[in-house]
Amino acid sequence: MATRSLWRTRGKLAVAATALLTGGATAAVATSEDPATALKLCTAVPVRLYRNTVTAASIAFDYEYSLWGLSEGSFEKAKVKHEVHLRSARKLQELCFKNGGIYIKLGQHLGQLEYLVPEEYVQTMRESMLNKCPVSSYDQVCEVFKKELGETPDKIFEEFDPVPIASASLAQVHVARTLDGQKVAVKVQHTHMTDTATADRATVEVIVNTLHSVFPSFDYRWLIDEIRESLPKELDFLVEAKNSEKCLQNFRKLSPHIAEYVYAPKVHWNLSTSKLLTMEFMDGAHVSDLKTIQKLGIQPNEVATLVSRVFAEMMFRHGFVHCDPHAANLIVRPLPSGKRTILGKRKPQLVLLDHGLYKELDFTTRFNYAALWKALIFSDANAIKENSVKLGAGEDLYALFAAILTMKPWNRIIDPSVDHLVIKGDDRERSERQMYASQFFPQISELLRRLPRVILLMLKTNDCLRSVNSCLLQGSSVETFFIIGKVSSEAVVEAKKLQRKSLLGRLDVLLEEILLEVRLLGMQIALWLLHLRRALTG
Q1: Active site (annotated) includes residue 324
Q2: Whether residue 20 has pLDDT greater than 70
Q3: 248-279 as b/e, with b when 16 or more CB fall inside 10 Å?
């Protein structure tokens, strides 16, 4: 039986490989209008598909062969499975680096999916995908400059460091000094992105469609539409520049109470194009660099609180959300005004980088999403179901949707205690999450298929923020959830004020607002008591 299962799997993979290799290049070339581009695609697509197929077959065979005959639940099987997970994660890591571009972005996202993939994959991708991306040579950088600005960097800038300080999936960053002496960061798109972006889209599309036809429960076709829509925007750095300015305008207009605590580098428009972005250089510490943050006289819990507040305002008030807030895109520095906390520590300012991926939530989606988080914070089971259904989860998967958002089982989600959503980050919790991920994989896939793509991007943002919180706090804190509850609740009340024009309707909202303040005050008192109890018990 095991032998037949092994050969059935290998047979399916052979079918998938054949479809990939024969159909991928044809599909890519057929959809290209430019003969030169078509020729490049004809070369690039089969190479990528060959790598993908070999890696997929190798991983599948490793799992089947290594685990064959081992007793379920035994110590030996758990040990071997861990080793296979680790080997497979490294193979995927190598594939992402070889293919580059979109594959690195997919690897970065994989590193956030604790609710879906084994811990070994999460850790391997997190350790490598954010700060060890391939680098373009200085000659390639000069090639981009000549095409975009007509000159090499040394003619345009007073100083230009040929060695990049950072390299990401789509671009790398160099330090330079303008002719008038300003220190700047210059983001240069990798030269291969223009040629390979279309090839990457084609290969991902063929892979996802083929896997769905071979394994029907694997339905990630929504990923194709998302890549098709978001990638061209991420490859246009002028869109990124406009997003950064709009983000700050939203804070000044809609969230003036925290506007000074959020910053984005100023853009040098005269030195920027769709493939080059010249920005003000920012000094500070990456949000995951605890030692440097503390050396700056800033408390990590203050940073965690600020990050939660900033993104809660974006999601629930602005409806214009930075959807790639991983640690490399968030910098912390002391607030320029010099303000300090009650304990004399310096207050932090959050600097947002990489504004290429934003999503807009329409009024209804923003209202329902805020109402859902309000319900999650206050353990309101009926409201959780109602708003989950409105967002597309369905009456059968609303509890799973809530579990993915909070990383908690249903019994904890509806627990009325003030710290019911706090993630401890210990081995027991991680093991529990992995068990649920394995047990409910088909249901998770179905849920992701159902949800609107904008909500899927909110899940991605949520995953990134959870990872950042984990770095800062080794888990999460009650304070961050209190902030989410406060901002989401206030956003719901504000939205209702706009909707209800009659006197009776306004009185109803006023009463709700008063009750909300009472609930928030009660939650704040519960927080103080919780801290007091922890302090007294050591």
Answers
A1: yes
A2: no
A3: bebbeeebeeebebbbbbbbbeebbbebbbbb
**What DSSP string describes 283-309?**
-SEETT-HHHHHHTT--HHHHHHHHHH
Cα–Cα distance measured from residue 261 to residue 349, given in angstroms and rounded to the nearest whole number: 5
Query: CA 175 → CA 128, 182, 185, 281, 286, distances in Å?
Result: 23, 11, 5, 8, 17
Q: What is the pLDDT of residue 292?
A: 94
Is residue 126's pLDDT more than 90?
A: no
- Mean pLDDT over residues 269-282, rounded? 97
| CA 19/CA 27 separation, integer angstroms | 11
Residue 533 to residue 524: CA distance in whole angstroms: 14
CB 261 within 8 A of CB 348: yes
Per-residue pLDDT, 95? 86
Element (H, E) at 172: strand 171-177
Point out which residues pair with 413 in neighbouring strands. none
Among 170, 178, 142, CA closest to 236: 170
Mean pLDDT: which of 125-134, 434-443, 487-496 is highest? 487-496
The DSSP string of 210-264 is HHHHHSTT---THHHHHHHHHHHHHT-HHHHHHHHHHHHHHHHHH-TTTGGGEE-
Q: Choosing from 34, 283, 289, 324, which is the catalytic residue?
A: 324
Determine the pLDDT at residue 475: 60
Tally of CB atoms within 10 A around 76:
9
Three-state SS at 425: coil
Residues near 170 by beta carbon (within 8 Å), at least 6 away in sequence = 101, 105, 189, 190, 193, 234, 235, 356
Locate 425 and state its tokens. 């980050």
- Contacting residues for 18 by C-beta, under 8 A, at least 6 apart: none
